């Protein structure tokens, strides 16, 4: 439910109504704009009579929000959110977030070398998997805590904030302490116990879209985290499963403008997982920037042919450097800085 206040309503009157609404068991989220103030009500509003609110002389009207997601809803937060991570920002009003690195951390030499190269190319975040969810239990599962240590070393050497995937709630404490951006992978998008626990942190969460998730389901997963108090969410479109078998997934670029219409949360695109083919990363990364993505997360490996994980979709540092150079005019054409 949204309560639209009259222009020029005194703050004390807004506070008075907010307190009365809170007393009825809902959370009140005020949004103060240049021309008007709205109160977003989150919780069970079924017991609140619209006419009781509209009887207030400072209320213009009451509107009901049809979508089940509230905190992620643009109606509750008209301005696009900017998520701050250390000295970096992710959002519509920020420079493009360029997240790059290997699918999996393999060694000190590998991760530190790639970190230095992607930073030189223009990346402002380092990605790398320490814990790897794999379809086969016999496939390489990552270096785990040793991998985290190596990521921290790469951050120390380059200054790049690190982005890595969490698998289980019991690892939240160490991730909250040591990781800059906690990634929730596609397979865990609806791991609601994990999402609830992440809602108790204040770390930035990179929430990937599930393999077959609708946009509403994706936003509802964000809502789980936000309902716990953590509103530092960045969405990531990484392709969805369709009938097509030529590519690993089907990149849904239409999700970007859809998210823009429905939500205030930033959204980045992963063209690597989207297709599973390294030579498709270039055109889809460019298309993602053109359609309005707030950033890119790209897999970069120094030796893709011998990578322990997803080498077929990884590009070499030299290819990444050329990609970033090619994206600059596209970013400029849509009003984005790099």
CATH topology label of the largest domain? TIM Barrel
Q: List the total number of helices.
A: 11
Q: Return Rg in Å.
A: 21 Å
Shape: elongated
**CATH top level of the largest domain?**
Alpha Beta
- Strand order in the sheet with the most strands: 13-12-11-10-9-8-7-14
* Overall pLDDT: 93
- The SS-based structural class is alpha/beta
The amount of beta strand, in percent, is 15-25%
Helix content: 25-40%
Query: How many domains is the backbone divided into?
Result: 2
The name of the CATH architecture of the largest domain is Alpha-Beta Barrel
Description of the molecule:
34% of the residues lie in helices and 19% in strands. It folds into 2 domains: 2-63, Alpha-Beta Plaits, CATH 3.30.70.1140; 82-333, TIM Barrel. It contains 11 helices and 14 strands. The protein has helices at 11-22, 50-54, 108-121, 145-158, 172-178, 192-198, 215-227, 255-262, 271-275, 278-291, 317-333, and strands at 2-5, 27-32, 37-42, 59-63, 82-85, 88-91, 97-101, 125-127, 162-166, 181-184, 204-208, 233-237, 267-269, 295-299.
In short:
The chain has helices at residues 11-22, 50-54, 108-121, 145-158, 172-178, 192-198, 215-227, 255-262, 271-275, 278-291, 317-333, and strands spanning 2-5, 27-32, 37-42, 59-63, 82-85, 88-91, 97-101, 125-127, 162-166, 181-184, 204-208, 233-237, 267-269, 295-299.
Keywords:
alpha/beta, 338 residues, Alpha-Beta Plaits, 2 domains, TIM Barrel, four-stranded antiparallel β-sheet, eight-stranded parallel β-sheet, elongated, 11 helices
